[in-house]
Design a protein that fits this description.
Strand content: over 45%
CATH architecture of the largest domain: Beta Barrel
Order of helices and strands: HHHEEHHEEEEHHHEEEEEEEEEEEEE
CATH topology of the largest domain: Lipocalin
Distance between the termini: 63 Å
Number of domains: 2
Number of strands: 19
Shape: elongated
Structural class: alpha+beta
Number of helices: 8
CATH class of the largest domain: Mainly Beta
Length: 429
Amino acid sequence: MPGGRPCSARTVDMVAGPAFRAAARLRLQTAALRLAQAGWPVVLSGWLALGDASAADAMFNIRIDVPGNPAVDIATPSGNRALDYFKESEVARVVSGYSGTEPLAIHVSYPGIEIHYLFATANSSALTVKIPALGINKTFTGTTRNDSRHLALDYLKSKGYLPQMMQLVTAHTVAHTASDPVAGNPQSLLSSMVQNDFDQQFLWRIGPPATAGHEAGAGFRYGSTQGNGEASRSRFLTPFYRYRFKQAPGSELSLSLPLAMTEVDGAESYQAGAALSYRSPILDHWSIAGGASYALTSSSDLIRLAQYGGISLTSDLHWDAAGWHWAMGNMVGYYRTFKLADYDPELRNTAYRNGLVASRPVSLLGTDADIDYFLIDTRYSGSSLYTRAYQEAGVALRKSGTGWNWRAAASVVASDSATGGFISLMCSF
């Protein structure tokens, strides 16, 4: 038995049961169906898929041991693909001569937790499940091996061990991997919420004062980042609506509905959310905006489900100097996870995002526009995150005023733990 490799073959059914039911609302139906078809208790691999998958130590590492045969080692970034190896037919495929009655040991490891799943004796239905991180070392004996698996599943569910496992995995991956879908990197759910709040309350508001009335639009952003050998790509679409009050010049109510898809080594996760903010002028060149936001992420590949809520406050200061128009945005926000599907990763973070923009007019194909050079610094305090601070530098072309407004931007992102870049386009009318 290799040290540091947990065990679980059908344990998959045991651990991920509740998460699958809740996640069924958000693209987890497929995963649940595959688990059921596998016939293996979802105890082990189900929740293991909860973390993010990528290179080396961020993958599902599986070892299948059957006496008289060489050990089979498997590494995969996808929870769905990992589940294939928990089927009797798949074990028989990778282990020559396996009939379902031999001693069998399956060890599964994933950052933050290990599980060992053992049928120690030939022709025996006694199943031993060991999860050292939770102090579990228990044997289940049913009429058949399948009965034993269900007994183990029922035990883990009834004792509430599933949420504890998920919490261990999440706490580890957000702090030690560069592509977790929940938090800890520039493309995670947490970072996306912070960026959207800052865009809506400051960055996308740079330009001449707009007239009272309605404005609707959408922003698209593509991002690619890499850190610790892990690469992720994301696509964001953010429809938004603004209403500027005629009775209170400069005051504005904004609603945005950010959507995103992120891919890590073929494993996809999805984000959806809503953010509401209100902007009010304090002085001629100084405004304050406050907002509240909500978002969730789900992945049938990674078997991940989490939701966040947040509040934020942004200062927006503008002035002219040395032939340039300057804008400084300073945002502070508090973001925390909430229980969903009996599980709360208990992440609590305060975000600080500060930006400086220098703008000047340019002529673009005979059209008057503006060019923006911007620097943004983002930092987090609170729960441990893999990337606690990163900086972004970029340039944007912008046309604003009456009628159609647009902004096209490109930027690079760098930190001690991750690098990458974004391109974006925003249009409104």
